[in-house]
């Protein structure tokens, strides 16, 4: 089976490599020439545990990268699916353009798998018409990706997967390919159910994080320690509350629930409120920073250091990160000094690339991301506001 994976980002690259490392002939395609050049020169394009080793194995098995789709038996599309800021509706342009490019080169009857997360109904509304217009009649499949950045390789291997197709026969064919690397259960269904279940998974998590974030605010008003309250409540066999934090980032959980809100505005009150709650957390963090500054007679915003620019711990992905949301929402926060051990090139103003320079220049350190690197650093002598409950120093401020 020859497979062409379209879009070599956070999902497409690990997916291509694991397929190649497990006996499939794989070509990866990305329109970004720089990504393609790097991969063909044996440079892995982002940090993820185990990705380097997987890359070596895949390269030995003949994995290569191209800027255009090639002839193959199966195409897997893993391009981004942004949403439009105002309407909250999905913007399917990247998936549509990938499908068009693939249709130009494919042989009739090849299989076209969409892994990109799409709002329920997208494939029928925006993809099927393009496919029907062509004379290639590919089999359409939706196999939504389900991997957690930071644990991608083990999740690719062990998670259950969903394959939505128009017929059992096609679903079984695709299942046989995914089975070459996936040890989890592979569930077969129709395309619309696959689309909806993926978006529902991320919405479920968003709502549960919003609940934890709301509890942090309630406990603060009540003068209680939210972490202790959650720890005790979670002793109940049917309670499993997540952890509050400075907001929800990443390209999945902070995006997918909007697809449902955009399409079903009247029926998604809870989902919409959860999004608002999570989106309001960076502002809540800012209000707490101002309080803490007053309490400690810190008068200049430039004496506040923000530790963490990525959307969560131990990944180098900054998309929609709470720190970026904070900088975008609140003009005064632009004076803060920012440091992140995983962002090694300067990406924003006031970013400090060296930890000791960062720590020297600030009086208050705000922990926005709990990177492992923090464990080896001393924050002695600093006022610390820990929004991730990551350290146990005395006199640390919490959310
Ligand atoms: N967060 C909290 N409190 C928590 C857990 C997370 O504030 O208790 C925050 C994180 O700090 C981060 C955000 O939520 O800012 C999202 O992080 P995450 O680790 O929960 O999830 P993602 O976005 O890295 O990956 C999610 C996963 N989905 C679910 O867990 C339902 C992953 O399995 C999906 O494959 C991925 O979205 C995706 O691509 O859809």
Concise synopsis of the structure shown:
The protein is of the alpha/beta class and 399 residues long.
Secondary structure: elements and pairs:
Elements: E1 2-6, H1 12-20, E2 25-29, H2 33-40, H3 51-60, E3 64-66, E4 74-77, H4 93-105, E5 111-114, H5 122-133, E6 139-142, H6 152-158, E7 161-165, H7 168-178, E8 186-189, H8 191-222, H9 226-233, H10 256-263, H11 269-295, E9 304-307, H12 322-329, E10 337-339, H13 355-361, E11 364-367, E12 383-386, E13 397-398
Parallel strand pairs: 1-2, 1-4, 2-3, 4-5, 5-6, 7-8, 9-10, 9-11, 11-12, 12-13
Antiparallel strand pairs: 6-7
Bound molecules: ligand SAJ.
Task: Give me some keywords for this one.
Rossmann fold; 5-stranded parallel sheet; 13 strands; 13 helices; globular; binds ligand SAJ; 8-stranded mixed sheet; 13% strand; alpha/beta; 399 residues
Structural write-up:
The protein is α/β, with parallel strands linked by helices and 399 residues long. It folds into two domains: 2-189, NAD(P)-binding Rossmann-like Domain (Rossmann fold, 3-Layer(aba) Sandwich), CATH 3.40.50.720; 240-398, 3-Layer(aba) Sandwich (Rossmann fold). The chain is 40% helix and 13% strand. The chain has 13 helices and 13 strands. It has helices at 12-20, 33-40, 51-60, 93-105, 122-133, 152-158, 168-178, 191-222, 226-233, 256-263, 269-295, 322-329, 355-361, and strands spanning 2-6, 25-29, 64-66, 74-77, 111-114, 139-142, 161-165, 186-189, 304-307, 337-339, 364-367, 383-386, 397-398. It is globular, with a radius of gyration of 23 Å. 42% of the residues are buried. It binds ligand SAJ. Residues 117, 145-149, 201-202, 205, 209, 242-243, 245, 248-250, 252-253, 311-312 line the site of ligand SAJ.
